[in-house]
Amino acid sequence: GRRGSQGRLLAPHGGRGFKKLEVRDRILIVEDDASIRNFLRAILEANHYEVILSATGAEAYSLITSRCPDLVILDLGLPDLDGMTILKRVREWTGMPIVVVSARDHERDKVDALDQGADDYITKPFGPSELLARIRTAIRHYRAAGSAEGTRSGVFRAGGLVVDYDKHRAYVDGRDANLTQNEFRLVALLAKYAGKVMTYDFLIREIWGPNMENNNRILRVNMANIRRKVEENPAQPRYIFTEIGVGYRMVEPD
Ligand code: CA
């Protein structure tokens, strides 16, 4: 069953007879498979999230509107409504973070979900650390987007990679990576959304405009050049990862 809301604001703290005000992020799990649902709940509760559960799309939609979760974990294969339908409906009025869970390793599903506004996806089976990282990233991006602090200005740092947005330069281990203008724009775009997978179509549209749509070759060529310039071993990248059939993902900043 679902937990009550009384746990959200007050949590006993220590043995000193006072309560510490603690606001936990509330996560709605939408999943019809009971074993996966319980697995997710156990991980999230162990990591101090407040959890709401739903096994159907209709109930999920009503919980999203009534309980305002901080993030939704959405299974695409539900008995009543397609997860994609819920995604589209929710995106009509809110940008709340949604991480899609895909049972099948169907790349088209992931791409569709991302294009419909999902913040990220994970493919079953997945481990706790991957799930928690995806959740933290999605919530952080949502809050950063809503705050005055722009992520485009300043500097992105991850290990030896530095992306200086103002100077339009990327550096690796202190050396200028000598990126071309389009290569820099690609790296800067991935850095801006670090931790989040960016689809091929999104990147192509952003860099080359709508007329280049469905031309993945130019993107692949640019990415190969970028990797040659920024990665020590392009076959085992440390900074920019390939999500096969979907797109690319920049490593999280330091
Ligand atoms: Ca399912």
Description:
The protein has 254 residues and is an alpha/beta fold. 38% of the residues lie in helices and 22% in strands. The protein has 8 helices and 14 strands. The strands form 4 sheets. The chain has a 5-stranded parallel beta sheet, with helices on both faces. Strand 1 and strand 2 form a beta hairpin. Helix 6 crosses helix 8. The N terminus is likely disordered. It binds calcium ion. Calcium ion binds next to loops.
Q: How many β strands by DSSP?
A: 14
Mean pLDDT: 85
Estimated helix fraction: 25-40%
Coarse structural class: alpha/beta
Strand adjacency order, main sheet: 4-3-5-6-7
Largest sheet: 5 strands, parallel
The succession of helices and strands, N to C, reads EEEHEHEHEHEHEEEEHEHHEE
Show unreliable segments: 1-17, 148-152
Distance between the termini: 39 Å
Number of helices: 8
Which ligands are bound?
Answer: calcium ion
Radius of gyration: 20 Å
- Beta-strand portion reads 15-25%
Shape: globular
